[in-house]
Each structure stands twice: as C-alpha cells, then as structure tokens.
Amino acid sequence: MVQRIKFYQTGTLTVGNRLLDERNRTVQSTVDRSNSLTSGHRACQGCGEALGARYVVDAAMRASDNRIVAVNATGCLEVFSTPYPESSWQVPWIHSLFGNAPAVATGVAAALRAKGRDDVRVLGQGGDGGTVDIGFGCLSGMFERNDDVLYVCYDNEAYMNTGVQRSGRTPPAARTATTPPVGGGPGNPFGQGKDPALIAMAHGIPYVATATVADLHDLEAKVTKAMGIQGARYVHVHVTCPLGWGSRPADTIRLARAAVECGLFPLFEAEHGEITEVTPIRRKVPVEEYLRPQRRFAHLFRSPPDTEAIAAIQAIADRNIRKFGLLGKGDG
Amino acid sequence: MLRQIEGSRAVAEAIALCRPDVVCAYPITPQTHIVEGLSELVRAGQVGNCQFINVESEFAALSVAIGSSATGARTYTATSSQGLLFMAEAVYNAAGLGLPIVMTIGNRAIGAPINIWNDHSDSMSMRDSGWIQLYAETNQEAVDLHLQAFRLAEQLSVPVMVCEDGFILTHAYERVDMPEQEQVDAYLPPFEPVQVLDPAEPINIGAMVGPEAFSEVRYLAHHKQLEALDAIPDLAADFSRVFGRESGGLIQTYRDDDADMVIIALGSVVGSIRDVVDEMRDAGVAVGAIKIVSFRPFPLEEVRAALEGKKRVVVLEKCLALGLGGIVASDVRMALRGLSLPVNTVIAGLGGRAITKASLHRVFRRALEGELHDPHFLDLDLDVVDHQLARAKERRRSGPIAENILREIGLVGHKLM
Amino acid sequence: MFQIRIHGRGGQGVVTGAEMLSVAAFLEGKHAQAFPSFGSERMGAPVMAFCRIDDKEIRLREPVMEPDALIVQDPTLLHQVDLFSGLGADGYMLINSSRSFEELGLGEFVGRFRRENIATVPATELARKHLGRPLPNAALLGGFAAMTGRIRLASVEAAIRDKFPGRIGDANAAAAAAAHRAITAVCGPERVKDAQAD
Question: Which of B2, B131, B347, B397 has its CA 20 to 30 A from that of C174?
Fold first, then answer.
C-alpha cells in the first residue's frame, strides 16, 4: 500500500535531500514512500527504534516494489506500534511470540516459496533481547539454513519494554534494573555479552551489516543492498533509547553518532563471513563523550570518577578501532 | 490400496496426499519415522512444491508453522512428549491466532524421569490450549484422522492435533488401506485462509488485546470448539461417503447397547479392550466399550447419552493428574452430571508399561465386584513403592527416587515387560 | 491367531525380520501385525520383535507373551535372557546355530517340546554364503516357513524382495530358500506340503 505524503509532513529531511542528486536521496525524504510505519504509534519522544524502523521498512518496501511481509518479535517496536486497538503498520505484519520471530519469518518465506511468490520478500524484526537472547536459537537456525529472510535487530542494549533489564547486548558498566551499580560493582559486568553481527558472520550468510540511526542514509543503503540479495541477511541497527539510557530525547542522533565515533559501535559490512566494507571514523572522540550524557553510566562519573571502568571501556573502543581498522591503515 | 506398512510411513504418505505446502519438524522419538518419510517424499518430488524445513528445535518447528500458515500455506508438523512441552508457548499462540495447522503427536510420556515409551501425558498437557485433539485407535484410523484433520482445521480455522500411540502404532507394521490421490482431492479442497499475510491486502496479525476485548476473543475460541462438536461428525460422515469406511467421529461404541458396565478409553488400548469385551461377553458378562476419538472438544452429550441406563463405567486412561486422579475420568464425570453411576478410574500403561489382556480381565472383574479403589493403578508393584517410601523415611539423603527403584528391580539383562 | 517372537541383538535385523514376516502373511491375504520391543537404538543390546498373524483383524496390542513360535537369531542370548518364557509344549523353536541343541547345552531343556517342532539352523553361515554378510534374519524366515507351514516360501521370498531391492533381495531370498531346504530335511516335508496347499 502506497500512501502519498504531503510535502509539509516530511519535514526538513526532505528539504535537505532536495539538494542531493536524486539517486542519493533517502526513501524517507520522498513523498511516495510507503509510510509502512505510519504516525500514531506510541513510541517515546526521541525513540531511536521508531526512527530506525521507519527507515528500514520503507527502504525494504521500495526495494521490493512494495511487497514485503513483516514479522515482529515481542518488544518495544511491536508494543508501541500496535497499541490496542490500533496499529500503525500499513504492511502485512505478524507478531507471534518473543523468541520466535526468525522462525516465523522462515515459515513465511517457506510458504511464499511453496506458492511460487518469489516477488514477495520477508523482513524479520526484533529488539536485542528477542534477537540475541531468547530468539537466539531460532536466529541461528534461520542463518544456518540460509532462509531468504532479512532480519533486522534494533539494538537499544536492554529489555526496554519490560522496564530496562539487562540483555546479552547490555554494554559493560551500564546500569539496568537487573545490573544496578550497588555494592561497589560497576553495573553490568565486564567480560560478558555477545556480538550478533560477528556471530552472523560466523554462519557465513550472504550479507551482514551494522548500522546506526546516526547515519540514516547509510542505514537505508544497507537495507536496500540487503534486499537485492537472496538468502539469510542480518542488519544490526544501533538505536538510542532515551528512557532506558537516561538521555535527552533531543540527543538521540548525537549519542548514536558518538558511539560510532568513539569506536564502541563499529560500522561494517560483511559477505559470507568476510568483512567487505568498514566505515572509517571521521572524528575520533573519547568514550566519555558518549558515556557522560547517559544516566545509565552516571555512576562512573561521581566524585571520584570510576577511572578504571572508563579506561576499560576506552580499551574496548580502542580494540574495535584496531580490529576493524576504523581509523584507516597504520593507525593506533 | 491395501498395504502392509509401518504406521509412521502410512501417516507420512497420508500427509503427502493432502498436498501440504510446508512441512517443518524436529526429530524426537517416536515421531521421527513420520518426518523422515515425508522428507523422502518431498525430495523425490512427490509432494508438488512442498517446502520441507529442517528446524533447530520444536519451538522453532511450530513457529515456522505459524508463519507459514499465516501466509496461507497448508502446514504440517509433528512432535512428542518433551518436544510438545518445548513448543508450548507456540501451541497456545497458534490456537489463539486461529491458524489451521495440523500436528501429529506420537504419544510419549513426559519426564522426569526421562522415558521414551507411550502414554498420553504429552497431549493431555495441552488439552486446554484450544487445539482440537483426536485420538487414533489403529494405523488405519491414524491415516484417516489426518485427512479429516486438515479439512476440520481449515473449515473452522483452528489447529488440530492427531494423537497416535508412540511405538505401539507409530512403529507397528499392519494392514492399512491407503487412500488414492483422487479420493483425497475429492474430500479435501484447497486451503482458503480466513486471514492471510498478503501485500495486496495488508493486515496485521497478533495484536495485543486488552481487558476490554480479551474475554470475547476467548469466548469465541470456546465457541469454535463447540462448533467442532457438530463439524466432526459431519466430516466423518462425508469421509465414509468418499472412502467407504467409518473412521473418526466423536466417539465409537462397541457392544454397549445392553451393557451393564462400559469401559471408556482412548487410542490403541481400545483394540485390546475389544478382545476382552468379546471374551467377557462369551463368559456371559454384559460389558461394552466406548472409544473417545475427539477428546477436545470433549463430547459431553454423546458420552452422557451412551452411558444412560448403564450401571458402572470404568475409565481406563494412560495419563494422570498427579495428586488428583484421572484426567479423562474427570471429563467423563462432568458428562455424567445428574446421572448417578459409579465411575472407576484405572490408570494404566504409564511410561509404556504393557496393558495385557490378562490384566484387563482381572481389573474389569474387580470393577464388577465393586472392589476397586479410585483411582486404581493397574499392575502397580506395591512392594517397590513401599520400599522407596521406607528408604525416604530412613534417611534424608535417600537419593533420586528413579535410580533407587531401577537399582532395586535390577535392570540388568532383559525382561519381557 | 499365530504369534511369533524373535530374539536377537540390536543391529542384526530382528525388527526387519518381523516386518518381512508380516508382509509375507499380508501377501497371502492374512492380517498381520509386527512391532519391536521398543528401546533406545543401540547396537548389541538384546532386542525382541513380535509378529501376529490371523485371518481376521488383529486388535490386540501387547507384547507376545505366549508365542506359538520362537525364533532366536543370536544364540549368545541363550543363557542370558529368559528367551523361552511363555512357549508352550507344542510350540515351535528355531535357533540360529550350526550346533545341535545338545551342543548348545539345551539337550535336556528341549525335551519338553515336540522334536518335530524344534530345530537349529546355521542361518548366519547361510547368510554369509549367499549374501556375504552375517545377517541371518531372512534365512530364518525361510526356516520358519518350513518348520511351521504357516507361510509359503514364495511369500517369504516376495516379502524379502519387497524390502531389499535387486541383488541383495535375490541373495537374501536364496539364503531363505536354503534354510527352508535345511529345515524341511529336519522337520519333514509334510508340513511344507500343507502350506503349499493353502
């Protein structure tokens, strides 16, 4: 279903995009975007996930001539987009359970294949909890079978919908409801967590990418590219959660950018287990620039500050920079 | 065509005849041969464009089925025991969403203790999920019920479980009249979904429903089960028109017209019970049997009507509500409200213990004499039980119960039963 | 109803033997039921398989407790497992061995059975000779047919070929025919003639 948006509804993004060559304009900036996740949903002010999902789904629709079926795990996106009795989805959309979105997506793809509908594509969506924890078995199964599904994870680094509990994506030292920084501990322990993009690469699937709401053009481009490929594809999107991270709604994009520019969230693409593209950091910043504006890290910045923890986080960022070559070759 | 065939293979071929679009399953004893058979048939190109998905868990299996069915594909899966429990969340989800998935349960006991042999505890654990549950007595009936299941599921938009005794039926070679494709096509029309994920007409499935509407949605699911009480006999009647044999329905009775005592049971044990009924009749005892085919919806009216005028009923079941007694017996008692008639519960065959004609004769005799406690556990070794109770009393750290008992009965070498 | 119980070890084709027997009966228009004593799949563990044959539908579902015929595929089970449980004095017994009952230490024990109903047959050797592998199940079915007269050799051969394609089926059928000849010599041709007359 394609809905023509009034020009004034698209905002300054459209205005800005008019300065670009047509080929480089975002899907979101066009008046004939599918508006798959339309207005009226109940996301928080400044929600990175709502922003990311809008871009992802409309890009997927554009790439598939408006023929996708979306499968959603339980979580923030599912809850705020379908507040009983309304829905803001204008695409065929199914929500089954928390831990089975990749498997349900596999089933949708199988049904379409059985019916010879190779023109209809499948998009699976879930948060970090539903993707890397409870849905991990199903995700790995979908990867391993190379089912024709694009799975997008919106990673806000905790179980936000249920009240900000720790997930397998919660970063070290972060405060959550189940990793409170009491008793001398720094919040979420160091040395835990998993990297689903690297895990996806280990499955050797055709396409893996990390993306962020700080670079929406890049996000759309990666989704568009993924839609041009058959088989299992995974895009991991870093999305700010003002409520869960304790940040100002207006800082959503800024924080997402800081995560990239300090090295904590590397941007890369990979095909069949090999990295093919890395986005270099344009202006490296220390991790504090990313951590300070978030109340979930506030306990690191008391008097005296937890310099050990901050240094440990900086070491993680530096390691990423080295490992992925984020500052170009021959960097430190 | 008449074939001498393994039960599982017969079911696999029956499913293939139903022209499924998607088959997805995870291996678990004793359902494995069904799925293996289907994978072979699909690979050999004998099932059209059917997609066979090897999934990574039972939870994934039913989840794949949910996605597939919601996309308008005729979908099939199978499981048993622990696998059914592992997919429990999806079982309720599929029923709640009204998706016409057909699933075979190769009935097997649920652990702990881990046990691979037959009883009905697995399907019984999901009896309130909203799935229709049909129980097969023979491999012929297993084949027939799967055909009826697809039609029933799609007609009402509700998932259906076909239960057949693990090993006893799944792994038995016996004579089955396998249907022809033309017959199946005449009986089972193409799937016309009530709801389907289609870009041409987008809908959303799986929304949250609040207190304002949940009761109505649930009531409608209850109502659907009641509709099935009418649909099942109609489908069975139509089945016998197309295939020329009686199969399925809500209940079947055996020599119960002038019976004083009636035995009620589900599944393959009914076969042995028929033999015992004949032998007791030959000895002048007025006994009969009722086989419940549709356990969900439970045919309250039919059971009640069949028991009117009878003097005693024995419910023989392969399941147990721990701490309470019989599961089937409870439903039978509900059917009897108002009729005062003694009901004996016999718990038999748990974990695959053989139910022999000799034991059946003994217990039915005792029931006639009014000698049975309720519930009565058939062939229970009270010595073993007493020894364990004594062991537990003697010291705190008496060890795991199962291991203690196995050590006592000395499971070295091979015993017949 | 005629009930058969087969004893052997996992991996020896005991279950397949019972299945083929049921198919042979089916080919003669009879009802037959075959099933294993179920257990975890494990090579070498004692296993049993059962077969019932009848002219009418078989409704009974229990292990064969009182077999009319007993087939023992692996003689190493003889003094380990209670193989003979339920076998009546008129029962048939066929043991896979090149040794006699006396040599097997069963001389006194088999005294209670009818001599014309019991035999040993070197089925493993026949299998090795005809199909090059020590899988005695098909051969034993040929011997069973000869001993009991309950089933024709032709039906056994057809059931074997139904299960095993091409050369393997032929080889197994040949082993069955050889065992059939051997048992006919021991138990007498009259019984075999009765079976042919059905």
Answer: B2
- C19/B173 Cβ within 8 A: yes
Which of B56, B97, B203 best tests the A interface by mutation, with the highest count of A CBs <10 A?
Answer: B56
Whether chain A has a CB inside 8 Å of the CB on B27: the answer is no
What mean pLDDT is predicted for residues A274-287? 97
Cβ contact, residue pair B172, C33, below 8 Å = yes
Among A204, A177, A74, A88, which residue's Cα sits nearest to residue A128? A74
User: Residue B109 contacts by C-beta under 8 Å, 6 or more apart in sequence?
Assistant: B81, B115, B116, B117, B118, B119, B121, B122, B350, B351, B352
Place of tokens 């023989």: B316
Q: Determine the Cα–Cα distance for residues B59 and B56; give it in Å rounded to an integer.
A: 8
Q: Answer yes or no: are the C-beta atoms of C156 and C143 closer than 8 Å.
A: no
Residue B271 sits in the same domain as residue B133? no
Q: Render pLDDT for A28-67 as a digit per residue (tens, 0 to 9).
A: 887 778 889 999 999 999 999 999 999 999 999 999 999 9
Burial (0-12, 13-18, 19+ Cβ within 10 Å), A307? exposed
CATH code where residue C189 lies: 3.40.920.10
* Bridge partners of residue C31, in order along the sequence: C54
**CATH number where B318 lies:** 3.40.50.920
Using a CB-CB distance cutoff of 8 angstroms, which residues of chain C are in contact with residue B355?
A: 61-62
Query: Pick from A293, A6, A34, A49: which is nearest to A152 by CA?
Result: A49
Q: What is the CATH number of the domain that holds B137?
A: 3.40.50.970
| Per-residue confidence (pLDDT) for residue A2, from 0 to 100 | 58
Range of the domain at C147: 2-197
For residue A199, give the 3-state DSSP assignment: helix
Q: What is the pLDDT of residues A87-139, one digit of tens each?
A: 999 999 999 999 999 999 999 999 999 999 999 999 999 999 999 999 999 99
Of the residues B58, B197, B203, B215, the best mutation for testing chain A's interface (the one with the most A CB atoms within 10 Å of its CB) is B197
Residue A143 tokens, joined: 């990867």
- CA dist B315 → B325, B363, C108 (Å): 11, 11, 47
The residues pairing with C121 across neighbouring beta strands, listed in sequence order, are C96
Q: What is the mean pLDDT of chain B?
A: 96
Nearest neighbour of B202 by CB, restricted to A90, A95, A116: A90
Contact A68 B199 (CB under 8 A): yes
pLDDT of C12-57, one tens digit each? 899 999 999 999 999 999 999 999 986 655 678 889 999 999 999 9
B99 and A CB contact within 8 Å = no
Which of A58, A81, A108 best tests the B interface by mutation, with the highest count of B CBs <10 A?
A108
Closest residue in C to B270 (Cα–Cα): C59
Q: Is B76 on the interface with A (CB under 8 A)?
A: no
Which residue range forms the structural domain that includes residue B200?
A: 2-243
The shares of helix, strand and coil residues in chain A, as percent rounded to the nearest 5, are: 40, 15, 45
> What is the 8-class DSSP label of residue A153?
E
Chain B positions touching A73 (Cβ under 8 A) are: none
Spell out which residues of chain B touch residue A1, defining contact as CB-CB under 8 Å: 202
Q: What is the pLDDT of residues C132-179, one digit of tens each?
A: 999 999 999 999 999 999 999 999 999 999 999 999 999 999 999 999
Pairwise CB contact (< 8 Å): A100 & B60: yes
What residues of B are in contact with residue C19 (Cβ under 8 Å)? Answer: 6, 173
Q: State whether residue A244 is helix, strand or coil.
A: helix
